[in-house]
Amino acid sequence: MTLKDTALAVRENAYAPYSRFKVGAALRAASGAIYGGCNVENVAYPEGTCAEAGAIAAMVAAGETRLTEVYVVASSATPVPPCGGCRQKLAEFGSPETPVTLATVDGTEMKTTIAALLPGAFGADHMEGV
Ligand code: THU
Fold this sequence. Notes:
26% of the residues lie in helices and 24% in strands. Strands 2-1-3-4-5 form a 5-stranded mixed beta sheet. By secondary structure, the protein is an alpha+beta fold. It has 4 helices and 5 strands, in the order H-E-E-H-E-H-E-E-H. Tetrahydrodeoxyuridine binds at residues 16, 19, 21, 23, 39, 41, 48, 50-52, 72, 80, 82-83, 86.
């Protein structure tokens, strides 16, 4: 399975009864393995989780902590960018130049990077010397 196929397939399992906006994410980890995640909403709205967070959790649960490529897909008219929190989560496990593809289910793709999504990111180096 490709990153795109994984993201499209896992998106089908999204639990989004409140927004009705299904999102699928797939990550390639350093080993080459692919991990997928979907958004999981909750009636207590702030408790919902994003597709990217689910994919990161699957990767970490499998014992991996570095990602090399990201693909996110939703049914919007234009590729929907990750929320601010997910940009920080992706930055934790990727590098600034890690490629991120944002896509629609119709096949429109926008290619970017973690650094472009989160310029001036807060990182561990900012805590040095504390
Ligand atoms: N959502 C994601 O899962 N990832 C994104 O990149 C954008 C937003 C979800 C969260 C919520 O379940 C729904 O989309 C509407 O915000």
